[in-house]
Amino acid sequence: MLGILAKIVWLRLIDVPTALSARKDSEEGSLVFHVEDSICTWNNGNRRIDGSTEGAEQP
């Protein structure tokens, strides 16, 4: 019988803008999404991130 072992890790971003700006992507592109957090409410709202190989920006 084959066994599968999986670890599930949950985390909460405390500072969404800083965390996203630290990303570097292999291709350029934009992503728009909504954050809703009942504990870290300062992160709530619509976000847009423009990614590139140089790093990400939030316009």
Arrangement of strands in the largest sheet: 1-2
N-end to C-end Cα span: 52 Å
Number of helices: 1
Low-confidence residue ranges: none
Q: Which bin fits the share of residues in helices?
A: 10-25%
The shape is flat
Q: How many whole angstroms does the radius of gyration measure?
A: 15 Å
**Helix/strand/pairing class, anyone?**
alpha+beta
User: What is the succession of H and E elements?
Assistant: HEE
Key phrases:
2 strands, alpha+beta, single chain, two-stranded antiparallel ribbon, 59 residues
Descriptive report:
The chain is of the alpha+beta class. The chain contains one helix and two strands; from the N terminus they run H-E-E. A two-stranded antiparallel sheet has the order 1-2.
Topology, pairings included?
Blueprint: H1 16-21, E1 29-35, E2 45-51
Antiparallel strand pairs: 1-2
Sum this structure up briefly:
The chain has 1 helix and 2 strands. With 59 residues, it is an alpha+beta fold.
